[in-house]
């Protein structure tokens, strides 16, 4: 497994100390609100990237954690190490300072670090609103990194000139990607805080891409990584832990939760990561139900499996809860694994690919109706208000998720228990475990038709 960025794309890293406006610049350049923006210093902890275009050139834009002088074992120290990886991988670096605050010793220290980097550097003096701000930006000349570019990310000032400078440092426009080029599988990693989601992402992509540690809630934003497994491209999103709604209090945590839910809505398959030492708890069930409501295929990752003392009891406990509380996702694939040691991680992506194939699968009308005749013969639809429901045929107009449309006289009155019976039989017959199934009823009432009482 390896990273596979967009062909010919230039990597542009936005770096600087905390709270100078890097994420606001990232959002402006990306053309949409992707990174969390808040006055709290250190909101961005992991490298966040997005694929976009500038001047017709493909670009991978990277938002990074604030650069701070800190012990490597601390959270700021781990954040700095992550940012330094982005600096080493970048083709162009945007070094951001706060013109309003002026140069700080930290700015000067990191300017010294950047002077040793071979990639070209553009010095951005942010928060330089108006004429006074532009004059204040000139102080940054003394860093020896070229002419400062005064901008205001909050107000959008100076971005025309900034884009011109960026494009001037990019290679010539590549040939267009051919039609029918492979699209990445959209995959989200979701779960409660401290279940091991970021450790799992690092294990999958084979590098320390995300900040990890024993502290709960390290990941604050939804972070996207594009890479490849043996089957092709994957756009993988690590999300902040989803806690119970009553416990989501701070504005920043509300924003993190919103970003996680947004990632879940945009994905095709969700990996729900559980702490196997705790089992399948109510919040895990709530997250799985949310994914099902959004129509996403789900794979269950039983993480920290190496720390489970009685594995048979743990597995049975999870299966019992799935049977009683997640019947709408019957047959969901469960992968015991340890993201920290790598045990079982190799089985996860094959399970994801299989779930994605089921989620995309459409059954032909002939095959579908041959099965449906058997289903009706085994268990006839009941009488409702003394009148017979006469089901005539099915179609499957769409997948993603699989959707069955039932046609027949008074089909709209079909009881829920018979619909569940039909869906369970459909799952078993066509191997649709762990995939949401949608049922639409198309009834008819013809006053001239013979009554089927």
Automatic annotation (TrEMBL):
<protein>
    <recommendedName>
        <fullName>GTPase Der</fullName>
    </recommendedName>
</protein>
<comment type="function">
    <text>GTPase that plays an essential role in the late steps of ribosome biogenesis.</text>
</comment>
<feature type="binding site">
    <location>
        <begin position="63"/>
        <end position="67"/>
    </location>
    <ligand>
        <name>GTP 1</name>
    </ligand>
</feature>
<dbReference type="InterPro" id="IPR016484">
    <property type="entry name" value="GTPase_Der"/>
</dbReference>
<dbReference type="InterPro" id="IPR006073">
    <property type="entry name" value="GTP-bd"/>
</dbReference>
<dbReference type="InterPro" id="IPR032859">
    <property type="entry name" value="KH_dom-like"/>
</dbReference>
<comment type="subunit">
    <text>Associates with the 50S ribosomal subunit.</text>
</comment>
<feature type="binding site">
    <location>
        <begin position="191"/>
        <end position="198"/>
    </location>
    <ligand>
        <name>GTP 2</name>
    </ligand>
</feature>
<feature type="binding site">
    <location>
        <begin position="16"/>
        <end position="23"/>
    </location>
    <ligand>
        <name>GTP 1</name>
    </ligand>
</feature>
<dbReference type="GO" id="GO:0005525">
    <property type="term" value="F:GTP binding"/>
</dbReference>
<keyword id="KW-0677">Repeat</keyword>
<feature type="binding site">
    <location>
        <begin position="303"/>
        <end position="306"/>
    </location>
    <ligand>
        <name>GTP 2</name>
    </ligand>
</feature>
<feature type="binding site">
    <location>
        <begin position="238"/>
        <end position="242"/>
    </location>
    <ligand>
        <name>GTP 2</name>
    </ligand>
</feature>
<keyword id="KW-0690">Ribosome biogenesis</keyword>
<feature type="domain" description="EngA-type G">
    <location>
        <begin position="185"/>
        <end position="360"/>
    </location>
</feature>
<comment type="similarity">
    <text>Belongs to the TRAFAC class TrmE-Era-EngA-EngB-Septin-like GTPase superfamily. EngA (Der) GTPase family.</text>
</comment>
<dbReference type="InterPro" id="IPR027417">
    <property type="entry name" value="P-loop_NTPase"/>
</dbReference>
<keyword id="KW-0342">GTP-binding</keyword>
<keyword id="KW-0547">Nucleotide-binding</keyword>
<feature type="binding site">
    <location>
        <begin position="126"/>
        <end position="129"/>
    </location>
    <ligand>
        <name>GTP 1</name>
    </ligand>
</feature>
<dbReference type="InterPro" id="IPR031166">
    <property type="entry name" value="G_ENGA"/>
</dbReference>
<dbReference type="InterPro" id="IPR015946">
    <property type="entry name" value="KH_dom-like_a/b"/>
</dbReference>
<feature type="domain" description="EngA-type G">
    <location>
        <begin position="10"/>
        <end position="174"/>
    </location>
</feature>
<dbReference type="Pfam" id="PF14714">
    <property type="entry name" value="KH_dom-like"/>
</dbReference>
<dbReference type="InterPro" id="IPR005225">
    <property type="entry name" value="Small_GTP-bd"/>
</dbReference>
<dbReference type="Pfam" id="PF01926">
    <property type="entry name" value="MMR_HSR1"/>
</dbReference>
<dbReference type="GO" id="GO:0042254">
    <property type="term" value="P:ribosome biogenesis"/>
</dbReference>
């Amino acid at each position: 497994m390896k990273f596979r960025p967009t062909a010919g794309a230039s990597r542009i890293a936005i770096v600087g100390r905390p709270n100078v406006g890097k994420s606001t610049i990232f959002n402006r350049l990306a053309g949409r609100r992707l990174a969390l923006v808040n006055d709290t210093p250190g909101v961005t902890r992991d490298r966040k990237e997005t694929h976009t275009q500038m001047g017709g050139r493909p670009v991978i834009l990277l938002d990074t954690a604030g650069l701070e002088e800190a012990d490597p074992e601390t959270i700021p120290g781990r954040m700095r190490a992550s940012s330094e990886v982005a600096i080493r991988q970048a083709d162009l670096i945007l070094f951001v300072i706060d013109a309003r605050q002026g140069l700080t010793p930290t700015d000067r220290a990191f300017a010294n670090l950047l002077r040793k980097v071979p990639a070209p550097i553009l010095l951005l003096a942010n928060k330089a609103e108006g004429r006074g701000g532009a004059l204040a930006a000139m102080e940054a000349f003394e860093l020896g990194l070229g002419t400062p570019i005064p901008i205001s990310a909050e107000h959008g000032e100076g971005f025309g000139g900034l884009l011109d400078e960026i494009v001037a440092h990019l290679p010539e426009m590549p040939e267009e990607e051919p039609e029918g080029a492979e699209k990445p599988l959209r995959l989200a990693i979701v779960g409660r805080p401290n279940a091991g989601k970021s450790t799992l992402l690092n294990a999958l992509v084979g590098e320390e891409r995300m900040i990890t540690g024993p502290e709960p809630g390290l990941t604050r934003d939804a972070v996207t990584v594009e890479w490849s497994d043996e089957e092709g491209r994957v756009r993988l999103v690590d999300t902040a832990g989803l806690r119970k709604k009553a416990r989501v209090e701070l504005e920043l945590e509300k924003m993190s939760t919103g970003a996680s839910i947004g990632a879940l809505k945009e994905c095709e398959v969700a990996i729900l990561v559980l702490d196997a030492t705790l089992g399948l708890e109510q919040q895990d069930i709530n997250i799985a139900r949310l994914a099902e409501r959004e129509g996403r295929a789900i794979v269950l990752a039983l993480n920290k499996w190496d720390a489970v003392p009685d594995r048979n009891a743990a597995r049975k406990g999870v299966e019992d809860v799935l049977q009683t509380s997640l019947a709408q996702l019957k047959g969901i694939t469960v992968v015991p694994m340890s993201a920290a040691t790598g045990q079982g991680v190799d089985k996860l992506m094959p399970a994801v690919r299989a779930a994605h194939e089921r989620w995309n699968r459409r059954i032909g009308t002939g095959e579908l109706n041959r099965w449906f005749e058997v289903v009706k013969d085994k268990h006839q639809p009941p009488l409702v208000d003394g009148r017979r429901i006469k089901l005539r045929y099915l179609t499957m107009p769409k997948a993603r998720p699989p959707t069955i449309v039932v046609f027949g006289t008074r089909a709209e009155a079909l009881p829920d228990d018979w619909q569940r019976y039909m869906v369970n039989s459909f799952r078993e017959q066509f191997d649709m475990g762990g995939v949401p199934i949608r049922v639409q009823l198309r009834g008819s009432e013809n006053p001239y038709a013979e009554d089927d009482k």
